[in-house]
Design goal:
Helix content is 33%, strand content 29%. The chain has helices spanning 40-47, 67-70, 88-98, 103-116, 132-144, 162-177, 189-195, 213-220, 275-287, 302-309; strands at 2-11, 14-24, 29-33, 55-60, 63-64, 73-76, 150-154, 182-185, 198-203, 206-212, 224-229, 242-248, 251-256, 265-266, 269-270, 292-297.
């Protein structure tokens, strides 16, 4: 497990990272998101030893992160670090050799990765002849070629079309399935939401929220539900403790008011304390009026959570 504990870093008067703490667990995909200038890249560079921390510590499996340990990390920077005139396969093999692989293993790993990332047919082309999206795939291969114990990827989906994103997602999921901890940043929140198991949201250099994807949805999601009936659902606005958010004929989206009185009645059903009982009271009120075609909580998106905490 990678542990970032109370890490801070300043550049002059600018506090770029302020008391940041989070874990990246084995086999877990951890999304690291925040606006531009929020401290994501600085934090990643501290983990990798490119920058030093003013305070705090970074540990790997409970021990200090030394240069030997970092050699077993895989890193993909946001800025492309490829040699433009070097051939694709030669480039990936070279990166493997820098991490200590012998040539045979590096060549085998490079070929496998280029096949998985579907750029093997460009193996003998100079990197500069590739599209930006294919260069991104090669850069990902370079970060993975030495079978790293930990993956740190800064904007790995930048410049990728939807098909390429799916290909890269498959490769990253495969690494996580082998038990590799993966930390990645991205501005594409819909991709982060699909991929991550855990999430760290950073704002102004500090962690604004962190936890598993489901835990954050439960923590920051409103008491919001959707009801679908056969007839117009406008009657729901008259129920005590219910605030209508959206109405589209037979479909209604509503919030439950936490301040509703315990004794409020919904169409003859007594509402007792607790959201779980109150949402069931709304359902019972709907059933008294006719068939219910759909009912359930509305799960907040990562974009909605992000907007709430930053």
């Amino acid at each position: 497990m990678l542990q970032v504990s109370s890490v801070s870093r300043s550049f002059g008067d600018l506090r770029a990272v302020d008391d940041v703490s989070f874990d990246v667990a084995p086999g877990r995909m951890t999304g690291f998101v925040g606006a531009n200038g929020s401290g994501k890249t600085t934090t990643m560079r501290i983990i990798l030893g490119v920058l030093g921390a003013d305070d705090g510590a970074v540990t790997w499996r409970g021990d200090e992160v030394t240069q030997k340990v970092r050699q077993r990390f895989g890193y993909m920077p946001e800025e492309r670090g490829l040699y433009p005139k070097m051939k694709v396969a030669e480039q990936v093999v070279y990166m493997g050799r820098l991490h200590g692989l012998d040539r045979t293993v590096a060549q085998r790993n490079a070929t496998e990765l280029l096949e998985q990332l579907e750029v093997v047919e460009r193996a003998e082309d100079p990197v500069e002849q590739l599209s930006l999206g294919n260069q991104q795939r090669v850069q990902i291969a370079a970060a993975l070629v030495h079978d790293p114990d930990l993956l740190i990827l800064d904007e790995p989906f930048s410049g990728l079309d939807p098909l390429a994103i799916e290909i890269v997602l498959g490769v990253l999921r495969d690494r996580a399935a082998r038990g590799v901890p993966v930390l990645f940043s991205s501005h594409q929140l819909e991709v982060v939401e699909r991929l991550c198991d855990d999430l760290v949201i950073i704002a102004a250099g500090a962690v604004a929220a962190s936890g598993s994807r489901d835990a954050l949805r439960a923590q920051f999601g409103p008491s919001r539900f959707q009801l679908v009936v056969d007839e117009d659902a406008g009657w729901i606005r008259d129920l005590p403790g219910v605030r209508l958010v959206e109405l589209d004929g037979p479909r209604a989206v509503f919030d439950l008011d936490d301040e509703a009185d315990d004794g409020a009645a919904l169409a003859g059903t007594v509402v007792r304390s607790g959201q779980g009982e109150r949402d069931q009271a709304v359902l019972q009120a709907a059933l008294q009026r006719g068939p219910v075609r759909g009912f359930g909580p509305v799960v907040p998106s990562l974009s909605e959570i992000f907007k709430e905490v930053v």
